[in-house]
Amino acid sequence: MPDKSFLILDDDEAVGETIQFIAESLGYRAKFVTHARDFFASLDEMFPDIITIDLVMPELDGVEVMRLLGERNCCSRIIISSGMGTRVLDAAQRAAAQHKLNILGVISKPVSREAMRILVGESCDLKLPQVIPEKLSGQHNGQSISKADLQQALDRHEFVVAYQPKIHCGTGAPAGFEALARWEHPQRGTIMPIYFIPLAEEYGLIDVLTAQVFDQSLAWFSRYFAQSGLYLSLNVSARSLVAMCGQYAINPDRIVLELTESSAMVDPILSLDLMTRLRVKGFQLSIDDFGTGFSSMVQFVRLPFSEIKVDKSFVMRSQESAEARAVIKSIIDLGHSLGLVVTGEGVENSASLDYLNSLGCDLAQGFFIALPMTGAAAIAWVNEKYLLPS
After folding, report:
1. What's the per-residue H, E or C state across the chain?
2. How would you list the strands of the sheet with 77-82, edge to edge?
3. Most confident of 82-91, 226-235, 261-270
4. Is the pLDDT of residue 96 over 90?
5. pLDDT of res. 258
6. pLDDT at 236
C-alpha cells in the first residue's frame, strides 16, 4: 500500500472520484468525501500528505474549512479547487496563507491529470521537511509548545541554521544566502519557524533565539564568505534590531537584516529610529513579504530600507494570475524608483525566473534555484556555481 496519502473534499461525486483516480495514478493512497464532518474524521485517521478542498460546499464552505485547518495547525499540503474565476481562487489562496497553511497551489475545474501531476509531482520532487504540529504529533500529549519547551531548546542549542541561496536574475550568479532558523527537536524532528518564532516573541525569548541564530550564521559567513562579495540575509523581529557583528570580521554592508512588512509597521516611529541607527552603522535593511500587509505607503517610504522582497505568493502565481503579475511589476517599479534592490521570492520554475528577469528584478530565490541547505552544502553550492577569481 502506498505510504503517501491524499484526502479530497468535494460535494460533486464525479469530481471527487476523478481526483481520487488521478491521485492513485500518481502513487497516493487516496480517499474522497463529500461532507465536512467526514472530512475532519478522515483527517484525524489519515494524516494526509496532500488535501484538495473545493471552495463551494453546501455546509461549510472551503474557506471556513481552511480556517478550521489553521486552528488545528494542519501540516498537510493543500490544493484549492473551484470552478470560480481566478480572482476568487487568488483571494482564497491569500486567505489560506493568513491561516498559516501550507498551500501547494490552486487548480481550476474541470481538473486535469496533467495539472494535478504538475502540482503533486513538483511537491514530491521537492522533498520538503515535514512539520509535525503539536496537535497531531502526540509527543507532548497534545499540549502546545510552552515557554519551558522553548527555554530548554535554547539551553540545549537545538536551534540550527539553514541557508537558502539568492542569485542575480540576469546572470544566475550567486548573490548571497538567507539564513533560516530551524528547531531540531530530539523527538519531533525538524520544526519550522512559523511554529516557534511567534511564541518566542510572546514568551520574551526572541532576543536569545535571535542571538543564537546570529552567532551561528555570522560565524559561518565570517569563516567562508566574509571577503567574497556575497551577502548574508538575516530575518529578525522588530524587537531584536541590535548590532551583533562586532566580534566578527564582517563588513556590516555585507549583512542584510530582513523584517516583515507587518512587524516594521507596528510602531513606525520606533522602527524609524532603530532602522536609521542600523543603516548609519552600515547594515542593509530589507522589507520581507512585501505586498501582503496593509501598511501606509507614506510610512513605508519614510523607513530607510535598502531592499524590497516580492512575496512568494505573487511570484508562485505569476504564470496563471494577471493580478499577481500586476502586483509584481508594481513592486519592482516601486522599489527601483526608490533606489532599492528588488528580490523575488518563491521561484519554483524557469518561467517565473524568466518573468522576473524580464521586469528587471535584481535578485531571486526559491526552490527552483536551491532549497535551504546546511552550511557545508552551501559552501559546495557556491564552489560549483560561482567562478571565484583564481
Report:
1. CCCCEEEEECCCHHHHHHHHHHHHHCCCEEEEECCHHHHHHHHHHHCCCEEEEECCCCCCCHHHHHHHHHHCCCCCEEEEEECCCHHHHHHHHHHHHHCCCEEEEEEECCCCHHHHHHHHHHHHHHCCCCCCCHHHHCCCCCCCCCHHHHHHHHHCCCEEEEEEEEEECCCCCEEEEEEEEEEEECCCEEECHHHHHHHHHHCCCHHHHHHHHHHHHHHHHHHHCCCCCCEEEEECCHHHCCCCCCCCCCCHHHEEEEEEHHHHCCCHHHHHHHHHHHHHCCCEEEEEEECCCCCCHHHHHHCCCCEEEECHHHHCCCCCCHHHHHHHHHHHHHHHHCCCEEEECCCCCHHHHHHHHHCCCCEECCCCCCCCECHHHHHHHHHHHCCCCC
2. 29-33, 5-9, 50-54, 77-82, 102-108
3. 226-235
4. no
5. 82
6. 65
Would the pLDDT of 355 be above 70?
yes
The CATH number of 143-385 is 3.20.20.450
Query: Taking residues 283-300, what's their average pLDDT?
Result: 68
Judge whether residue 64 has pLDDT over 60: yes
Domain boundaries, the chain: 5-126, 143-385
Question: C-alpha 254: how far from its chain's center?
Answer: 23
Q: Please give the CATH superfamily to which domain 5-126 belongs.
A: Response regulator (3.40.50.2300)
Is the pLDDT assigned to residue 74 strictly greater than 80? yes
Cβ–Cβ < 8 Å for 179, 255: no
Task: Say which amino acid occupies 27.
Answer: G
All three cell numbers of 95, joined, read 486567505
- Integer angstrom CA distances of residue 322 from 86, 319, 355, 386: 9, 8, 13, 35
Query: With contact defined as beta carbons under 8 Å apart, do 352 and 316 qualify?
Result: yes
Whether the pLDDT of residue 321 is over 80: the answer is: yes
Give which of 84, 76, 183, 93 is closest to 136, Cα–Cα.
76
Q: How confident is the model at residue 365, as a pLDDT?
A: 95
Q: Output 208 or 296, whichever has higher pLDDT.
A: 208
In single-letter form, the type of residue at position 90 comes to D
With a threshold of 0.85, does the pTM exceed it?
no
Query: How far, in Å, CA of 252 to CA of 246, rounded?
Result: 9
Taking the C-alpha atoms of residue 103 and residue 97, their distance in angstroms, rounded to an integer, is 7
